[in-house]
Design brief:
The chain is mostly helical. It has a single domain (about 1-75), classed as Orthogonal Bundle (Arc Repressor Mutant, subunit A). About 70% of the residues lie in helices and about 0% in strands. Helix 1 (about 1-10) crosses helix 2 (about 20-30).
């Protein structure tokens, strides 16, 4: 994954996405640069329009974010408090379920 990030960094800085550049970034970050994996990544990105790929991914991921935020707000707005009776009832139900295991 760090190699993909390195390729994106190179692309963002308008540098060529090549083996040498990816290797430098990964090693500068303290990672291990696997030459075979870097070569495969560069080869697979050769005919890819990275800007278009980012736009398509950003559009697909955008609708998911608001739903997650709304769910979080709803959870914060309605704190759930269980009464002692509810907790006791759940404990009894759980014990009943366990007793059925042992006949």
């Amino acid at each position: 994954m760090e190699m993909v990030y390195a390729a994106l960094m190179l692309h963002t800085m308008h540098k060529p996405v090549d083996e040498k550049g990816i290797k430098k970034i990964v090693e500068a970050a303290g990672g291990e640069a696997d030459a075979a994996r870097i070569k495969a990544l560069v080869g697979s990105l050769k005919d890819v329009n990275i800007d278009e790929a980012i736009k398509q991914t950003a559009v697909a991921a955008a609708p998911a974010a608001p739903a997650a935020v709304e769910g979080k707000k709803a959870a914060e707005a309605k704190p759930e408090e269980e009464s002692a009776e509810d907790q006791e009832k759940k404990a009894e139900e759980a014990a009943g379920g366990l007793s059925s295991l042992f006949g």
